[in-house]
Amino acid sequence: MRALVFTDRLRFDPAAAAPPCPPGEALLRVRMAGICRTDQEITRGYMGFRGIPGHEFVGTVEACPDHAWVGKRVTAEINAACGVCDLCRRGLGRHCPARTTLGILGRQGAFAEQCCMPVACLHEVPPDLTDEEAVFIEPVAAAHEILEQVAIPEGAACAVLGDGKLGILCAWTLSRVAGNVLLVGRHPAKLQKARWEGVATALEPPANDSMDLVVEATGTGTGLMQAIALTRPRGTLVLKSTVVSQGELNLSAAVVKELTIVGSRCGPFGRAIKAMRAYRFPVARLIDAVFPLEQGEEAFARAGARGALKILLRM
Ligand SMILES: [Zn+2]
Ligand SMILES: [Zn+2]
Questions:
Q1: How far is the CA of 24 from the centre of ligand 2 (A)?
Q2: pLDDT tens sequence across 84-109
């Protein structure tokens, strides 16, 4: 099959091996996939992953032990858990120590004609979401994980630092709960696209600690220090970047202000799909370009260019 394969560098392979599809898993024909920051980090060595990356996708079920799924348009939760360990039994399969993660850890990903996922991970994509929108279900779910972890009252003062795709999706998501959200970023063009409903934007954070909740989505030490400075005493700081640049970090202000610090990663797909249908987040405006899979190397170069937002691959 055609696929993008990362070994020492990312290459298009017109004849890659089809993914192994063990019992209990569905074989999916990928329709479209999105390139995210994690994929770019994988091509720099993140997680030591080798093989086919890609975890934000929409596809059609080609074969499935449960025949009712065959032919349906779906996406899939990216973590395949063992289902029997202590964490899985407590409903924390996304933290299963034996998990594989689509295109990130021990499992071939979606930048290919086909991929496999356990049936339990599948979610049908409703007809009112286009393929282009459905590719955003995974990152919208990651944004909604914040709502699973933190109770946010209406009217809470919320800020998001970072105007990348995930930062913008977090701001849109929080605005549906809190009402108003301040998004702080460095790219005027991205901030313009981020302005929607209750989301206001700024190039610099306010010089006070007025925020009940701050989401750090820059993945930089500077962003983390700004986020701590911006959070009110006893406020909540949500860390949303899996890749944070190394360096000396002085966390004493977080101690003095007694902040609650919450790490936040993958989220609930069902909740994300409901929210996308109910709120019609304008995700299409985050798409910069759609490339055919054959031009995957150019697509990655474009995704890495300064100011780029979402780049999609069409299989
Ligand atoms: Zn992603
Ligand atoms: Zn498990």
A1: 16
A2: 999 999 999 999 999 999 999 999 99
Distance of CA 4 to the CA centre of its chain: 20
157 Cα to the center of ligand 2, angstroms = 37
Confidence of residue 51 (pLDDT cuts 50, 70, 90): very high
Contacts of 89 (CB under 8 A, 6+ apart): none
pLDDT in tens, 21-40: 999 999 999 999 999 989 99
**CA 22, CA 70: separation in Å to the nearest integer?**
16
Strands 3-6, 114-118: parallel, antiparallel or unpaired by DSSP? unpaired
119 pLDDT exceeds 70? yes
Ligand nearest to the CA of residue 87, numbered in listed order: 2
| Nearest ligand to residue 79 Cα | 2
- Region of 219 (left: φ > 0; alpha: ψ -120 to 50; beta: rest) is left
- How many whole angstroms from 222 Cα to the centroid of ligand 1? 22
- Region 167-175 average pLDDT: 98
Instruction: Write down all domains in the chain, each with its CATH number in brackets.
Output: 3-136+281-314 (3.90.180.10), 142-263 (3.40.50.720)
